[in-house]
Amino acid sequence: MAAPTAAAGARARVVALALAAVVGCGALAGCGGGSGADGTDGTGGRSGGQAAADTAARPHLRISGAFLPVPVTTGLAAGFCVVRNTGGADTLTSVTSDIADRVTLHRTRNGRMEMQDSFPVPAHGALDFSRGGNHLMFEQLTHKPKVGDTVTVRLHFRRSGTLTVKVPVRPATYNPGAGGAFGTPPDGAGSARTP
Ligand SMILES: [Cu+2]
User: Fold this and answer.
1) Reduced to 3 states, what is the DSSP secondary structure of residue 17?
2) What number is the average pLDDT over the span 21-33?
3) Where are the domains of the chain?
4) Per residue in 119-158, pLDDT tens?
5) Among 49, 50, 132, 158, which one is least packed by beta carbons within 10 Å?
6) Which CATH class is domain 57-172?
7) For residue 4, how far is its CA from the centre of ligand 1 (angstroms)?
8) Rounded to the nearest whole angstrom, what is the distance from the C-alpha of residue 24 to the centroid of ligand 1?
9) For residue 69, is pLDDT > 50?
């Protein structure tokens, strides 16, 4: 008979890690909480079985609506933006920033965060980072930015290379999605008028 204790031990460890991630993230009120603790298999790099036509065309990426809610500590900050693609498929493989030693990619599924190795950017589509959904997680901040500051973030794509974005630091509760309008002007274009 297989050893149930070993399986249970492994499972418990997975649960503990998941909870740690949720707790860490909840501390900055950026992520949808949720403490689901069942071990669905998380990351599974979707290998490019996309239509050949999608991958043949060059991707054409444009990043808009970037913002970073002001963090409460130097431990963690979340970042959001939309990557629009008017060309062929691409993949976001990593993110770096002058403000953090480490930036990780998270998605939220069923109210629970999962770290991702990469994110697909569909052909003629968009990769959306927004509250309660996908987000960038800045860890071990080099300093604590304040509202009005701008943070440099570099998004590294498999095909398009690196795109650099100047991300404005917004009030902690800032949420363009909540107002209903996602058709807001690109990037910092919308003057920083948040009620
Ligand atoms: Cu997160």
Assistant:
1) helix
2) 43
3) 57-172
4) 999 999 999 999 999 999 999 999 999 999 999 999 999 9
5) 49
6) mainly beta
7) 32
8) 8
9) yes
